[in-house]
Amino acid sequence: MNQELQIQFPNSISITIKREDLLHPVVSGNKFRKLKYNLLQAKAENKKTLLTFGGAFSNHIAAVAFAAQEQGLQSIGIIRGDELGDKIESNPTLQFAQECGMQLEFVSREDYRLKKESSFLKNLEQQFGDFYLVPEGGTNALAIKGCQEILTPEDSSFDYICCAVGTGGTISGIINSALPHQKVLGFPALKGDFLQDEIRIFVQNENWELITDYHFGGYGKVNEDLIRFINQFYIENQIPLDPVYTGKMVFGIMDLIQKNYFPVNSNILLIHTGGLQGIFGMNAKLKKKQLPTINIDV
Predict the structure, then answer these.
(1) Using CA atoms, how far apart are residues 214 and 235, in angstroms rounded to an integer?
(2) How far apart are CA 146 and CA 220, in angstroms?
(3) Domain limits of the chain?
(4) Distance between CA 281 and CA 57 in Å, rounded?
(5) Spatial contact of 160 and 262, defined as CB atoms under 8 Å apart
(6) Is 172 a catalytic residue?
(7) Helices 92-99 and 278-288 sit at what angle, rounded to 10 degrees?
(8) Helix (H, G, I), strand (E, B) or coil at 281
(9) What does the DSSP assignment read for 258-279?
(10) How far apart are CA 73 and CA 93, in angstroms?
(11) How confident is the model at residue 242 (pLDDT cuts 50, 70, 90)?
(12) Do 42 and 18 touch, CB atoms closer than 8 A?
């Protein structure tokens, strides 16, 4: 569903948001797209268990846990940070995943960095038995295939396609399906420029760029300006934004419009990639720091 913002932007710019967050009540946005063909493949291989990786407030962990339960599969989550093992009840994401039947295994941050090493994966097989591996963030060739379905023929009129970037899977699918006249802009939620190489693994087109100025200090980092922006955007448009991904992307777009980044009459499509479950965990962190919270009804 495409929803045009009823805002008068300078230079006759128009903005429409593709509401991928409405795809599914739990497995929304890019998580739905990434898991679609991976779930089909797991069943084709007669796998009974999904195993994946994620952090304390991972949208991916929550999505895999629910999707596995919905499909009658078992799930295992390898969670970054062994200190979290006794804090499940105070973590909305991990508590939800566990309630969906996911078996949580907490590992040290040092061990977590080995998640792509064959020896580490071999140990997991010895520990848990046979499983279907879904990478951290869900990004693999099948996930890209799913994300290529985000854009539809009705999106051909847009000049710019914008999305938040985590592991690079969503933007890769969008780049592959974007038309030659369209420019794809990615807004990384992580610090660093390493994502360029990750994305190039999956794409051939060159009509894309990463805008690295709006990560707000890195993954999961926010400040009061961003929280105020998300709250005000919801009041004005009744569209909820998450603070880790889409909120930062929309903040960046609005700032770039004010800086005359976009040509006159630009028609811009923003991809809402979901992730709204993360608001509960973020608000818990903000309350501990006695900072303003995100006031959105989700």
Answers:
(1) 22
(2) 25
(3) 2-25+142-289, 48-130
(4) 6
(5) yes
(6) no
(7) 140
(8) helix
(9) HTT-SPTT-EEEEE----TTHH
(10) 19
(11) very high
(12) no
Q: Are 60 and 31 in contact (CB under 8 A)?
A: yes
Give me 253's structure tokens.
Answer: 């777009």
In angstroms, the CA 71 to CA 74 distance is 9
Reading the block at residue 52, the tokens are 């994946």
Q: Do domains 2-25+142-289 and 48-130 have the same CATH topology?
A: yes
Give residue-wise pLDDT tens across range 18-43: 999 998 877 878 999 999 999 999 99
Q: What pTM was estimated for this model as a whole? A: 0.90
Exposure b/e, 200-231, CB count within 10 A at least 16 = b: eebbeeeebebbbebbbeeebebeeebbebbb
Mean of pLDDT values over 235-259: 95
Read off the pLDDT of residues 276-296 as tens digits, 9 standing for 90 and up.
Answer: 888 888 888 888 888 889 998
Residue tagged active-site, from 58, 75, 177, 266 = 58
Cβ proximity of 185 and 208 under 8 Å: yes
Q: In residues, how long is the chain?
A: 298
Show Cβ contacts of residue 168 under 8 Å, excluding neighbours closer than 6 positions. Answer: 139, 186, 195, 198, 199, 202
Give the C-alpha separation, 1 to 154, whole Å.
10
Give Cβ neighbours of residue 239 (< 8 Å, ≥ 6 apart): 3, 17, 19, 233, 272
Instruction: Report the distance separating Cα 60 and Cα 54, nearest Å.
Output: 7
User: Looking up tokens 């699918």, which residue turns up?
Assistant: 173
CA distance linking residue 67 with residue 291, whole number of Å:
33
Helix axes 59-70, 29-44, angle to 10 degrees: 50
User: Is the CATH number of domain 2-25+142-289 1.20.1560.10?
Assistant: no
Q: Are 76 and 49 in contact (CB under 8 A)?
A: yes
Class of domain 48-130: alpha beta
